[in-house]
Write a structure and sequence with these properties.
Structural class: alpha+beta
Radius of gyration: 19 Å
Number of domains: 2
Strand content: 35-45%
CATH topology of the largest domain: Nucleoside Triphosphate Pyrophosphohydrolase
Shape: elongated
Helix content: 10-25%
Largest sheet: 4 strands, mixed
Distance between the termini: 33 Å
CATH architecture of the largest domain: Alpha-Beta Complex
CATH class of the largest domain: Alpha Beta
Strand order of the largest sheet: 7-4-9-8
């Protein structure tokens, strides 16, 4: 039996706030009674990562420039969950907006992408293809979509062509579908 105990949140002060994220400085009381200050906590909306396999077991992948790493990155279609939306609803909306694929289904698996300093959750949602239309990407999104056979995706991972943590986590679920 595990006798670990949670930390008790004593105080949280907003340090920064924007439409996309906020940062808090937090103080905690540890189970041993010690009080620790100055922990930074990142608040971001929960998001979805969308897995779509076609009949040939090819994975729908996006390639786009990401300024944070100043590189082109292969990743899954993804996006924020809006207020009032379920992860499955957000997955269907984002998939259509970014790729033009109208999906159905929506088995979703919950992940903690950065549990050391954020309460944000990611949901890997698996969708099936209904129809394919034209994507409706935003003005700051230059996304190319490609269908890559799962064997090729695994090779790209081994050769460090695919480095996105969300895609890598979802891949562990996809190979067994």
């Amino acid at each position: 039996m595990n006798d670990q105990k949670k930390w008790k949140l004593l105080d949280a002060k907003k340090v920064f706030n924007s439409p996309w994220l906020s940062l808090e400085e937090r103080s905690y009381k540890l189970p041993n009674g010690v009080v620790k200050n100055d922990y930074l906590h990142l608040n971001r909306p929960d998001y979805v990562l969308i897995v779509v396999l076609d009949e040939q077991r090819r994975l729908l992948v996006e390639r786009q420039y990401r300024r944070g790493v100043d590189d082109f990155v292969y990743e899954l279609p993804a996006g924020w969950i809006e207020k009032g939306e379920s992860p499955a609803e957000a997955a269907k909306r984002e998939l259509f907006e970014e790729t033009g694929v109208n999906g159905s289904g929506g088995a979703c698996f919950e992940l903690y992408p950065q549990p050391g300093f954020s309460s944000m959750k990611a949901y890997v949602c698996v969708l099936k293809i209904n129809t394919i239309a034209t994507a409706q990407v935003g003005e700051d999104e230059d996304i190319s979509t490609v269908w890559i056979p799962l064997e090729e995706v695994q090779k790209m991972v081994k050769e460090s062509e695919i480095k996105d943590m969300g895609l890598l986590a979802a891949l562990s679920l996809v190979v067994h579908l």
